[in-house]
Amino acid sequence: MIPSPFDYVRVTSVDEAVAALAEHGEDAKILAGGHSLLPIMKLRLAIPSVLIDISGITDLNYVRVDGDQVAIGAGTRHHDLENSDVAKAEVPLLPHVASRVGDPQVRHRGTLGGTVAHCDPASDLPTALLALGADVVLAGPEGRRTLPITEFFLGFFETAMEEGEMIVELRVPRTGDAGWAYEKFTRRENDWPIVSAAVAHLPGGGVGVAMANMGGVVLRAPAVEAALAEGKSIAEAAALAAEGTSPSSDMHADAEYRSHLARLLVRRALTVAAGEAAPSTAESTAAA
Amino acid sequence: MQVSMTVNGQQRTDEVEPRMLLAHHLRDNLGLTATNIGCDSTSCGACTVIVDGLSVKSCTVLALQVEGGEVTTLEGLAGEDGELHPVQAAFQSEHGLQCGFCTSGMVMASVGVLAANPSPTDREVREGLEGNLCRCTGYHNIVRAVLKAAEAGPVAGQVPQRSQEVSA
Hints:
heterodimer, A: 288 residues, Uridine Diphospho-n-acetylenolpyruvylglucosamine Reductase, domain 2, Uridine Diphospho-n-acetylenolpyruvylglucosamine Reductase, domain 3, Enolase-like, domain 1, 3 domains, five-stranded antiparallel β-sheet, 13 helices, 14 strands, globular, B: 168 residues, alpha/beta, Ubiquitin-like (UB roll), DNA polymerase, domain 1, six-stranded mixed β-sheet, 6 strands
């Protein structure tokens, strides 16, 4: 499969990329690692007329502490996040989840900004970013703006990114050694999650809980978070994981089974994050 | 558009359409047909090559994205005197193949696994090769081959450094 023809523009700075987006209009797409965009272009689900390759922007690939947050360049590849000592020390949920994305070859190419912009309801890292309450930094013709990720993911492959904007940075709280967990249910290890749950104990108190593939977009689990805040037990809180969700039914699982998985995986993730159980392995997850 | 890259030690500059995939560039423009295209959808790993030291699936990379990069395909793995790379030799001695279609990608991905982890366990090899499918299901001997190759030391995770040839 070969994508439809397009023009290719290579840029070396964010300013150049934003100028190119303004010049080429709504049919232009940003190309980073290309591991979400090229597959859908090969299937003709996306037919952009111009690709703006930002992989030559060297200062978009970093993980660094900035005040009480960790700032991660949008061009940071999953492989680099997975192996970042700063990320491992400051926000260990993220490098762990990066290591669970696809396979090594995919992680060598895919970028954090790319997976967030793509906004697939079944993607791993957006789920972790949602649990962490990340901020998304966008650059556009009017300059930069920062959005909470809860306001960024709007719906099925739909984000709050305006025409002419691109993601330049993700910012997450420094959770340090506070509890975290990621429980992912797949048929094969390198697949997209059928359902997954991310849990992060947050610096201000409170626990962030998010789930993949329980609807058209990655979701927080507000009923679970509220129950925990009220002092309910993990079992009581996790029982509410599927509340307010409308998961799809497909060849892998029907909606009822997905709801069961959500309750199960959220309970496991909360238990692991609380230090009361070891993380699931591929073998123990398969026994779900 | 023009694209320049070093492929198996040789500097190449070619005219490509922007939509040309690296896998097609290697096979159709450069005649390097060891790189197979299997699923063509980033799943099977048959098209795995090494770009700038890391394994990638060349069906999901544009040739233009490798501008200025260094690519190693299976053709570039053996020494200039024809001596097999340790991973190639181990695939041969352990019979790490059945029909052979996935082998080129398996060998390149295995070099990537050993580059990241020169002395992996059986489990680490299996996890490292999770992006490569063998539809003959010949995994046991493939894993055995990678473990055997690791006995050669760090060289098993390296691609040969070739003397730079400049094409006319």
